[in-house]
UniProtKB/TrEMBL annotation, chain A:
Pfam family, one: TctA
Keywords, comma-separated and alphabetical: Membrane, Transmembrane, Transmembrane helix
Lineage: Bacteria, Bacillati, Actinomycetota, Actinomycetes, Propionibacteriales
The name this protein goes by in its record: Tripartite tricarboxylate transporter TctA
InterPro entries membership: DUF112_TM (IPR002823)
Automatic annotation (TrEMBL), chain B:
Source organism per UniProt: Aeromicrobium flavum
The protein, known as: Universal stress protein
CDD domains in the cross-refs: USP-like
Family: Belongs to the universal stress protein A family.
A Pfam match: Usp
SUPFAM superfamilies xref list: Adenine nucleotide alpha hydrolases-like (SSF52402)
Amino acid sequence: MDLLMEGFANALTPENLMYAVIGVLLGTAVGVLPGIGPAMTVALLLPITYNVDPAGALIMFAGIYYGGMYGGSTTSILLNTPGESSSVVTALEGNKMAKGGRAAQALATAAIGSFVAGTIGSVLLVVLMPNIADLVVKLGAPSYFAIMLFALFTVTAVLGSSKVRGFISLFLGLTIALVGSQTGQARLTFGRPELADGIDVVVVAVAIFAIGEALWVAAHLRRRPLEIIPVGQPWMSRADWGRSWKPWLRGTAYGFPFGALPAGGAEVPTFLSYITERRLTKHPEEFGKGAIEGVAGPEAANNASAAGTLVPLLAIGLPTTATAAVMLLAIQSYGIQPGPQLMDTEPELVWALLASLFIANVLLLVLNLPMAPIWAKLLRIPRPYLYAGILFFAALGAYSVNFQPFDLGILLVLGLLGFAMRRFGLPVLPLIIGVILGPRLEEQLTTALAISQGDISTLWSEPVAVLVYVLMAVIAVVMAVAGWRRRGHDTDEIDRVLDRAAATDADDI
Amino acid sequence: MTIVVGYSPDRYGRAALAHGAAEATLRGEHLLVVNDTRGDALVDDRFAHEDEIAQVRARLATLGLDAEVRQEVVRDVAESVVRAAAEAAASLIVVGVRHRSPVGKALLGSVAQRVILDAPCPVLAVKPNEESDAV
C-alpha cells in the first residue's frame, strides 16, 4: 500500500501528469478515428523514448491504451463503425440506441462503465502483480518456452475463424524475426551488412501498422460519407443507472481474466458479456433494438481486459494484444526487461505506472463525459491530412532507430506486406507477436537445452510446462471438434462477430 | 434549358435552392440540384442525409418543378458542379456564398468562388436571409 502511495506521488508530478493528460487525449482521439488505434499511435511515438524518462513514456502509453478503449465506443455508437476491434460488440446495441434517440445514454453508460471497469481492473492488477511475480520467478527456461509457445498458439488460433490465415501471419512474423546474426550465424541477411543486426522491431511495427494502413486508406480513399447521429451532453436517468451497474460488474469479471490470458484481447470477453446480458436482461424485447445492458457490459469488459493485459506484460514480459506488444518494445528500448524481476529492479517505475492507471481513468471520465460531441467532430477531418501526418511520423520513427537510410527501404517493403495482409484478410496481431516473441522463444529454448546439455526431454521436465502443453492440446482438440461439428452449418453468431473483430483489427489497428 | 443548384444541407445551400427554384419556376426550366462530396472524410456535414434529400425532392415536387437531385462522390466538388452545368448546357448556376475570415481564405479553397470563375454560364451568387431560411 505504501508502495502504491509512493507510486501516486511519482505519477502526480506535474511532468508525469502532463504525460498522462497527453496520453488520454491522444488515446481518445485515435480511438474515435476508425483505422487508427492505440497500437499504431504508440508505435509512431516510440522515438520519444529517446528523450523522455521511462516513467513518463509508459504513463503516456498506458493513457493512450485506456483512452483508445474509451474512444472506440463513441464511433461505434454514433456511426455504427467501430473505432476499435474491442468496440465491435458495442455497435450492436449502441448504434440502435443512438438511432432511437438515446445516444446520450449510450455514451454515458459506456464512459461510466469503462471508468468502473478500468478502476476495478487496476485494483486487481495492483493486488495480483506482486503475487504473480513471486510465482513466475520460480519458473525455468522450459516453462517460459512453453508459455510463449502457448501465447503464440492462442493468439493465432483463437481470433478469427480462419486459422490458416492466422498461422500464415504468425510464420511471416517468425521469419522476419529470424533475420540477423544474433546467434552467431547469419540468417536471411542476403549478404547485406545492414541486416546483420536483424530488422528492428520498431521498424516492423511502424511499417505494418502505419504504412500498411496508410496504403490501404489511399487505395480506398473516397467513400460515401457515413451518417453521424447528432448528440448532446451524455447523461443517464435513474432507471438507466439501475440497468447498467450489474452489466458493468459482470463485464469487468469477463474482461479482466480474458485480458490476462493470451487470447487476443478484448473481442472474446466483450462478446461473452453481450451474450450474458442478453440472457439475463429483464427487457429481452429491447435487445436488438437498443438495450442499454448491451452497451454497458461489453464496454466494461473491454476496459477491464486492457487492465488485465498488463498482468502478463509486466509479470512475464508476454504481450497479448497489439498495443501491449508495442508497449513491450517501449519498455525494452530503455534496456528494461519486463518479467518477475521488474518489481524488484524497477519498483518506482512499476508503481508509478500502476498509479497512473487510476489517474488516467479519472481523467478519461472527466474528459469524455462532457466532450463526446467534440470528439465526434474529429471524424470530419479529411483523411489525406491525417495520413500525411502519419506517414511523416512513420518515416521519422523508422529512420531515428538507427539513422540508417536502409531502414526506410525496409519500412516500405514491410509496409507493402502490411497492405497485402489487409487486402487478403490476414490478421496483423500474430505477425507482430511472432516478431517480438520469436527471438525470445529461441533464447529460452537454447538456454533450456544448454542447461540439460542437449537432452530434449528437459522441455517437459517442469510441471508448469507440462500443464501448458496439455492445455494447448485440449484447446486444439476442442477447436478441431467444434470446427468439424459446425461443418455444413451456417457460421454462428460468435464466428460472425469474431470475424468482424478480426476484420476491424486488420484495417483498424 | 437547365438551372443547376449547388446544394448543401445548411443555410447557404437552402438559400441557393430557394433562389434556384424561384428562377426555374419563373423561366419554366428544368432544375438540377447537385449535392456532391469528396468522400475523403468519414463524416461530411455538407453531404445531405437520405431523409433530407427526400424532403428536398418532395418540396420541389409540390412546387410543380421538373427537378432532379443528384448525390455523388467526386474528386472535386466545384469541378463537378461546373461539369454538370456544361453537360446540361445550363442557362444558370446558383450557389450560396458565405463570409470567410482571412485565415479561412488562406487555408481553405472556396467551392462557390471556383464555380463562379470556371462556370460556362452566368452564376447567381446568393446569401441566406430569413425568407430563404424558412424554405
